[in-house]
Predict the structure.
Amino acid sequence: MGSISLEQYGITVVDVDRNCPVPKLYADALRADARSVIAASGSLIAYSGEKTGRSPLDKRVVEHEDSIDEVWWGSINIPISDDVFHINRERAIDYLNTRPRLYCVDAFAGWDPKTRIRIRVICARPYHALFMHTMLIRPTPEELAEYGEPDVVIFNSGQFPANRRTSGMTSKTSVDLDLESREIVILGTEYAGEMKKGVFTYMNYAAPKAGILSMHCSATADRETGKTSVLFGLSGTGKTTLSADPRRLLIGDDEHCWSDSGIYNIEGGCYAKAMFLSPDSEPEIFDALRYGAVLENVIYDEETHGVDFSDASITQNTRGAYPIEHVANAQIPCVGEHPADVIFLTCDAFGVLPPVARLTPEEAMYHFISGYTAKIAGTEVGVTEPEATFSPCFGGPFLVWHPSKYAELLAQKLRQHGANVWLVNTGWTGGAYGTGSRMKLSVTRAIINAIHNGSLSTAATRTDPVFGFEVVTECADVADDVLWPENTWQDAAAYGQAAEKLKGLFEANFAKFSGSVS
Ligand code: ATP
Ligand code: MN
């Protein structure tokens, strides 16, 4: 709290508020952004402008001799030179210098005090400062007093575009990571999720380097036994929704590390999808969106400031960010023991995969490397209806090393701790997208519950004729017919064809990796 000089970065703005208190950020946001209001629930409503989802095609990583052999170069990690990075960095700083007032958020990533990373966010929009204050681990006044120099600095100049004529730029948006100077520059996108996922991307570099597995997953713990489980999954598969479980302690909803001493959350907040949020089906998330939370790109009633969670007129990807302590059953500090269950969530738009299958260690590696799901509308710019995608480690866009690095760490930890691995389809049943319907949330919750209480470990199974894994065929509170997908389709032959087609997609995708994973 208080002011800080950012001169070391060439930032000359004098009015810099460091770790600005929440009520002041509210007041500044209302003044600075004419569209911002306070929701009836107390959340700050803010708008991210043109970009309402991440821009994965605009992500760049600096090619540097020290890390060139560590990075998985390709469409996910597109190289830029050190020179181009500095052109964008300077542009970002020039823009920040035109602002009358800046915000500096100094906080931590990682709940393990031994390995936590000091993150500094420098931005001009109070909403961005509030967002990162919410999503990072907030330092105590003592920790802030002895904070020292940050490990990673994010320069967020998202209101200002990149220069398209700068070499390697393909749009006005650029999100650039320099692993050597540990800096991230954001130009041309005000979507706040870029900052959070920028931190995660850096963690995906630093953690494996230290033998720690970083994971795109949520995590919960049993209240009595302390046993934990992690739920891996790509965007929209249910990590956040399913981890908001009143029967369990919440460790975190999106990003975790697995070290030799157990698991820990990377973040200090949760970032939930708000589309169709209702107090009946997701009361924990609904109640967490109160004073101190940020609601992005939602539509509200002018008179009452009540939010209409069913209005997608700005985007399908409306979001709410809230500090983890807003969740009544949060486990603070957000750490837990080695997972007893590892769950892969997939949102299968073909309606082919079973609601739950038990995986052998080999099958677990196959599905981890495959990272199959169907993209759901909106989280990425330009995606408006579901489409099958394969994203290694269920987090392809955020990987820095080759997927085999993460897969080997996971294999080793599964072996060492003997965790059970499950594949859970939260997507379509009774037919593909268009014919069938989304798996009922109550069905998926019953399955996750049965995994947690141990009953699925001994439940009856039947071998899937196409995929070869063991499909669980009995589960409390779930009709037997639902558990065997073919039974939910009107036309069994059509089911068989769809299954073969999906298997073909799996094989074509996996061919890219065969030989690289031991
Ligand atoms: P991200 O990585 O983008 O944060 P996520 O994995 O956390 O994605 P959620 O925010 O949990 O995804 O989104 C899942 C969405 O799907 C929610 O809006 C939830 O209400 C809806 N949903 C519908 N049916 C199910 C189901 N059977 N299981 C899980 N979620 C479901
Ligand atoms: Mn989530």
Summary: The longest helix spans residues 492-510. The chain has a mean pLDDT of 96. The radius of gyration is 22 Å. The chain has twelve helices and 31 strands.
